[in-house]
Amino acid sequence: MPRLRLKRYLLTGLLTVIPLWVTWVVFKFVLSLLAGIGAPLVSALLASLAASSPKAAAALDSAVLLFVLALLLTLAVLYAVGWLANRMIGQRLIDGFDALLARIPLVQTIYGGTKKLMAVLQQKPSGVQRVVLIDFPRRGMKVVGFVTRVMIEEGTGREMAAVYIPTTPNPTGGYLEVVAVDELTPTDWTMDQAMAFIISGGAVAPDTLPASPAALRGDHQDPA
Fold first, then answer.
1. Do residues 176 and 183 touch, judged by C-beta distance below 8 A?
2. What residues contact 130, with CB distance under 8 A and at least 6 apart?
3. Which entry of 96, 157, 160, 168 is 20 to 30 Å from 30 by CA?
4. Cα(10)–Cα(31) distance, integer angstroms
5. What are residue 161's DSSP bridge partners?
6. pLDDT tens, residue order, the chain (224 aa)
7. Dihedral of CA 77/78/82/88: which sign?
8. How far apart are CA 192 and CA 131, in angstroms?
9. How many other β-carbons are positioned within 10 Å of the β-carbon of residue 50?
């Protein structure tokens, strides 16, 4: 009995800590990414401060303090960019910045592609549902994906969808699959619901899932 109680308590403690650990890992990744953006500027400001006031610079020379300052600086810059983007002068500045980057081939490919992806995910889909289920990595296994574009296949005329498949629990990485539209399983999930499902490892999910088109047609699929 004491051994069974010990195992039960350890398992209960583990199941209690895992959600907190996953939340911390995701937040640590996001916060570290944001702080890393502002870190060079904070370091430069600290170096200039050391020239005029060595004691003040020494007092601020703390890893935790520099991390917090870099994070706050990045958040302030993001807020300022968002504020400008919602005003006419900000839109003109952004359009001018986009035109400048368009003259740099490699940079334009990365920047333009990422910007289009963010715009697509923010807009409501037309014709094809944004959040879908597809067979991946093999038939019989389903993953959540986001439709980013629909194309026409030459020769057959079939509609093909570009589907981004994020990974769990960090959705910033993933895979890109091109799938026939008639093989997609549409869902009525919102982007928020899909992201909660992915980040939680499936713990935050509806009680039912939509059936695939093949299952509705009664097709028999070979799981091999």
1. no
2. 121, 124, 146, 147, 191
3. 96
4. 30
5. 150, 179
6. 677 777 777 888 877 887 777 777 777 777 888 888 888 888 888 777 777 777 776 777 777 778 888 888 888 888 888 887 777 777 787 778 778 877 777 777 777 777 776 766 666 555 566 889 998 888 888 899 998 888 999 988 899 999 999 888 777 778 889 999 888 998 888 888 888 888 877 877 777 788 777 666 666 554 44
7. positive
8. 10
9. 15
Residue with tokens 């499936």: 202
Decide if 192 contacts 161 (C-beta within 8 A): no
Q: What single DSSP character describes residue 43?
A: H
- Can you name the residues that pair with 150 across neighbouring β-strands? 161
Here the tokens at position 167 are: 């990974």
Joined tokens for residue 190: 């919102």
